[in-house]
Amino acid sequence: MQYQIQNDVNGNPCAIAIVGKIISIPMNEGNTDYQAFLAWLAEGNTVLPPDEPVNA
Amino acid sequence: MADSTTTNLLLTKPEVGASTDTWGTKINADLDLVDAKFTADLLSASANGVTGFKNRIINGAMVIDQRNAGASVTPANGDYTLDRIKVATTQASKFTVQQNAGAVTPPSGFKNYLGVTSSSAYSVVSSDYFLIGQALEGFNTSDLGFGAAGASTITLSFWVRSSLTGTFGGAINNSAYSRSYPFSYTVSTANTWEQKSVTIAGDTTGTWIGATNGVGLYAWFNLGTGSTGSTTANAWAAGSYYAPTGAVSVVGTSGATFYITGVQLEKGSTATSFDYRPYGTELMLCQRYYFRNTGSLYAMHGVGTVFSTTQADVYTKFPVSMRIIPTVSLSSTQIQVGATLYAATSVSGAAGVTTDGAFSRVGTAGTMIIGYAAILANANNTSGYLDATAEL
After folding, report:
1. In terms of CA atoms, which chain B residue is nearest residue A35?
2. Which residues of A touch B392 (CB under 8 A)?
3. Which of B30, B148, B157, B171 is in Cβ range 3.0-4.6 Å of B11 for a Cys bridge?
């Protein structure tokens, strides 16, 4: 499993995606998917940077 | 005018002006009658399950299965199966879970059950555990007062049917797994529904989450646990324990079955009748933690506008406020702009998700026209969906 940062319109991290899935995990410590991401990070894994922003 | 009586309870209405020495006695008799009637009706309602929400377990009758709609799954650690029913496992692929697995007749009064089937004859090692159960939200358990003097006694009751017999078990744990109450029960006859109840004195020590949206307590049923996670039955212990020592291991016998329904956790020392709730109410209770929108070839998930040539912002209203801001995921969906369809390839919370709805930015590979109205829907596929997950 590989995680990737998602940025908001201002370029600030706001959510986490899982590569290969259509999913958006909020950066909320009560969210168990986010807890799993933090545990994955703690194991020494590296999260991918966000995609380049798409302008309207 | 003589005394008269009320229409319904036939209470005495003392004659006005002629009950000088008797009206008090008559009124007192009326009050006693009302008191007795009130108490009797209340007890009767409770005994018949009329009063609601005494059961802290959600989906205890195993009625709701939003994720799998009755299909069999092989759950990984942390996966949810039927709604609100979670799996904790140290080894992959040792059992399957299915609503109404084996198609046996449920116990009287129930239409559904959760069925576990062992996939192999696995010998648990000391650190193993295989559990199925529920994480109860702190808002729904705080009144039990665990962790302090005066903690309430609780009773866990359920119907169970297994191909194995002997001493089975499970556990009540706090959110940090620093407090555990392994309980035991006996399955006497193979492949026969038996109703069990376990009464547990409230834990007066340890740290238990109060009225928050975190885990108030775990209620687990054991399918196989090694020595590390097992200890003396029916007593509170410090540490992480999930089963009584020597409990039957369901995963230890290939093809073994463990079926359960009518799971109820209530305050008090007596197992009362199951708290039947309307289907719609039970579904809404489940949707606080998980919501799936699906059901037809072009099931609509939300509407919005095209933000960029490859992205549309779409709003989806959740049916109930969720426990926390949920994870949003899509499968087999598309953005429709006019008559043109664009397969959804990504979703981002960049545009904002709340506990009440998702304003999602959906990515496509298409060249959409900015500012046009957009619809997020299933892509000609009944198995497509939008999920919002806020489980414990």
Report:
1. B392
2. 32
3. B30
